[in-house]
Write a structure and sequence with these properties.
alpha/beta, Nucleotidyltransferase, domain 5, 5-stranded mixed beta sheet, 37% helix
Length: 320
């Protein structure tokens, strides 16, 4: 079976999608990165090949904050940013999509599309309020799973007003509401509404949010957040079937597009799960920039460097 791999390495999760030649999703893996992106990628590939040992990979694409690292590890044919990957995946699911809301583990973004072209986008990487990690933290504090957290919000008919501009203030305000005697579903629902207001006032500020609207990322599984967006925007919000791995799906689609112009793939093969990848960093003192250079070694041989502004170190590996 000939397939295309997409790998999305983020701060919280590492996602892998396997697409066939007709771009149908054959398999997906969603893992916690846990601060070890190389191990997460290798574990994900182990699961993929364990489920179907007869895969022939024609091309691989990587995206996410760890896309360059993942690209070196797997031997990626194409490396693209998250905006491009999520937009491509959204258009594959809903061709006439005009707005993509994506909320991940530690950041959130909005993508505006018109006639199949990205015309505007914005990202929030400053505060954790409204992201998956913050919602995970609140669910754990209330001793419930994240799935139950969203379901409890749907039980509410009167959301409590919660401050949502800051993660610290939001948590202290929730505690205050609990101690004041408010019902838990109303507090959770109020938090969802507060986070939606925060998103629209910051990430979505000045953007023309038009339907069809796709809600992607791990937070899209939270039913309370979906309902809060629909009430705030006064229109339906679509959560696609593979909402949590849409970045990986987009990376796989981009890999297939890239494969049209190549005769072979750079993919190292599934045997890479047994390879020894060692990252290290050092400071270059060749000029006042003092660049922090990242170096990746494969079985004690340097295979990649990046982070230098002048290309002194990265070009030396590329030329070799």
């Amino acid at each position: 079976m000939q397939v295309f791999l997409g790998i999305d390495v983020g701060s919280v999760s590492t996602n892998i999608a396997v697409l066939d030649e007709d771009l149908n999703v054959c398999n997906t893996v969603y893992l916690r990165t846990q601060g070890r992106p190389i191990e997460a990628v290798k574990n994900g590939l182990r699961q993929i090949i364990g489920r179907n040992p007869d895969l022939t990979v024609k091309a691989v694409g990587t995206t996410g904050s760890g896309r360059h690292l993942a690209g070196v590890v797997v031997g990626a044919d194409t490396i693209k940013n998250e905006i491009t990957a999520h937009a491509v995946a959204a258009m594959h699911i809903v061709p006439d999509v005009q707005t993509v809301i994506e909320i991940g583990g530690q950041d959130s973004k909005i993508i505006i599309l018109r006639n199949g072209v990205v015309t505007d986008f914005a990202m929030n990487t400053v505060c954790a309020a409204g992201t998956g990690s913050f919602l995970d933290q609140q669910a754990a504090r209330l001793n419930m799973s994240i799935a139950e957290f969203g379901a409890r919000a749907l039980e509410s008919t009167t959301p409590v007003r919660v401050a949502g501009r800051c993660a610290v203030f939001a948590e202290s305000d929730m505690i205050h509401k609990q101690q004041s005697g408010h019902q838990l579903p109303d507090i959770i629902n109020g938090l969802c509404h507060a986070l939606v207001r925060n998103y629209l006032n910051n990430v979505g500020k000045g953007k023309q949010i038009k339907p069809p609207i796709l809600f992607q990322g791990g937070v899209a599984a939270n039913q309370g957040m979906k309902r809060a967006f629909e009430e705030a925007l006064q229109c339906p919000v679509i959560v696609p079937p593979y909402h949590d791995v849409m970045g990986a799906i987009g990376a796989a689609i981009l890999a297939k597009e890239h494969a049209v112009n190549q005769t072979s793939t750079r993919f190292r093969g599934f045997n890479l799960v047994d390879y020894d990848f060692t990252p290290r960093n050092f400071e270059c003192k060749g000029c006042p920039n003092l660049c922090e250079v990242i170096e990746i070694q494969l079985n004690n041989a340097v295979v990649a460097r990046w982070g230098d502004r002048c290309g002194k170190w990265s070009n030396s590996v590329a030329n070799k």
